[in-house]
Write a structure and sequence with these properties.
Elements: H1 5-47, H2 49-62, H3 66-70, H4 72-82, E1 97-100, E2 105-107, E3 117-123, E4 126-133, H5 135-138, H6 142-192, H7 212-260, H8 268-296, E5 304-307, H9 308-318, H10 320-325, E6 328-333, E7 340-343, H11 345-362, E8 371-379, E9 383-391, H12 424-434, E10 437-443, E11 447-456
Parallel strand pairs: 6-8
Antiparallel strand pairs: 1-2, 1-4, 3-4, 5-7, 8-9, 9-11, 10-11
Helix pairs in contact: 1-6, 6-7, 7-8, 8-12, 9-11, 11-12
Length: 468
């Protein structure tokens, strides 16, 4: 049987209050009994003072307690006369004890000796005997019994009323305490069913108070907002990918239809156009594949000790003719000594090739006014920094932080007509982070864009310098 958290909390509160009420009743009963016992002893002492005085006088007159054995009825009559509040009865049945100075029992039931309260009988400051009064005699008065019974009954009623009041207060208290948990339950159920809420994030979950439940509500809001942003990014990602794939596919479809209809002939220009679109489509698919592997952490890396200058010079050699065709001047500013880092040479080649392609696509150059691409390598105590700068056109301030987002372009100067897919710089960031590096974009002193790639020293890398 399932019991809701509300009733569990109610039962816990009720049980705790019941235990507290029981402890109060037991403690008060014991305290009352002890205090009332002391009170009765004082009362009984004052009440039996004439009897103690009479017994002391008889002892002084007789010189011993031998008269008790000879005249027991005389002793019982003295006791009966000293307790006027008791009901009439046979004096011989009075449960009162008498012992001498040596605690030898002279008269009375020996079974009551241990449970009796002994009052000293003194003569000239010396104890000559003791009078034992059992519990039955000390509580024998009707008023005493009635008072004690009323006090105990009132304590029980107080405990019962306290328990009922605590139960009445526990019900709304448990409901109020569990209200944030109920809201969280509903919100988590909606989240699990795929309902990420509206764009108004402030109304997702109302945060009440400043305790652990409010912290949980804030964390839930952050979680829901993150999931919603991821969902929106995934939707945009799918739309952008579909759009990127649609363009080369549409061009290929139009070219092939023109060939089938006889409008165009399969001459070298037509075949070159088809091959160019296939290359563009294949490059986009490869970029998407690399990014998906990078996200999954399964992109293969083969770390080794390499000279970063060799990688940069190799990349320059691959694009030397393209730089000349685009009228771009290349310059490498680096230390004379080798710049050794731990990394995958193929992936680093891909990183700097993407930066080179980015400069080739988006840097203006002509025979009269060539563009410039300057690569600067610097060592420091923290690591190695590669600054890749090109000349105009530049990038707006608001676009610098977005350049490494997937499929992002600055439409004014970096349009689809230039041939870019918007994934190159995303791959640059992915490879840099896999090498425990960082990549940032700023304005270039040459008038264009400067991409800075920082590689930490192997000793400063979190997992002994091996790429993820």
């Amino acid at each position: 049987m399932r019991i809701s958290l509300r009733y569990k909390l109610f039962l816990i509160i009720l049980l705790a209050n019941a235990l507290v009420a029981s402890a109060i009743v037991i403690t008060n009963n014991r305290a009352f009994d002890a205090g009332f016992e002391a009170y009765l002893e004082q009362v009984q002492s004052r009440r039996l003072a004439p009897l103690l005085s009479a017994l002391s006088d008889i002892y002084a007159e007789q010189g011993s307690w031998a008269w008790v054995q000879r005249e027991p009825m005389r002793f019982y009559r003295l006791v009966s006369n000293a307790t006027p509040g008791r009901s009439p009865r046979d004096p011989r049945r009075e449960p009162v004890l008498l012992s001498d100075a040596g605690n030898t029992l002279l008269i009375g039931d020996p079974r009551l000796q241990r449970r009796a309260y002994w009052l000293p009988i003194e003569l000239n400051g010396e104890t000559v005997g003791s009078l034992g009064v059992p519990q039955a005699v000390r509580l024998g008065a009707e008023f005493d019994r009635l008072f004690a019974s009323q006090q105990r009954r009132q304590l029980r009623w107080i405990a019962l009323i306290t328990l009922l009041v605590s139960a009445a207060l526990a019900i709304p208290f448990a409901a109020r305490l569990l209200r944030p948990i109920a809201d969280l339950k509903i919100a988590f159920h909606r989240l699990a069913s795929g309902d990420l809420g509206s764009e108004d994030m402030q109304q997702r979950l109302v945060v009440r108070g400043n305790d652990e439940l409010s912290d949980l509500a804030r964390d839930f809001n952050v979680l829901a907002e993150t999931l919603q942003r991821n969902q929106q990014a995934r939707q945009r990602w799918i739309v952008d990918i579909a759009h990127e794939l649609r363009t080369p596919i549409a061009v290929l479809k139009a070219e092939i239809e023109a060939l089938l209809d006889g409008i165009r002939q399969p001459d070298p220009d037509t075949l070159a156009s088809l091959f160019q679109e296939i290359q563009r489509l294949g490059g986009l698919v490869n970029d998407l594949h690399d990014l998906s592997l990078g996200d999954a952490g399964t992109l293969a890396y083969q770390p080794a000790e390499i000279d970063l200058l060799d990688v940069l010079n190799t990349v320059h050699g691959h694009f030397d003719l393209e730089l000349a065709r685009k009228h771009l001047d290349w310059a490498l500013k680096a230390p004379d000594a080798p710049v050794t880092i731990t990394g995958d040479p193929n992936r680093l080649m891909q990183l700097f090739s993407n930066l080179m392609q980015n400069s080739l696509r988006y840097t203006d150059g002509s025979a009269n006014k060539p563009g410039r691409v300057v690569v600067e390598v610097q060592r420091s105590d923290a690591g190695i920094t590669v600054r890749w700068s090109d000349s105009s056109p530049g990038v707006p301030d608001g676009a610098l932080a977005l350049l490494f987002d997937r499929l992002y372009r600055v439409e004014a100067s970096r349009s689809r007509a230039s041939g870019g897919s918007g994934l190159g710089l995303s791959i640059v960031r992915s490879i840099a982070e896999a090498h425990h590096g960082q990549v940032t974009a700023t304005h270039s002193p040459l008038g264009g864009l400067m991409v800075s790639v920082f590689f930490a020293h192997p000793s400063d890398q979190p997992d002994s310098g091996s790429p993820a």
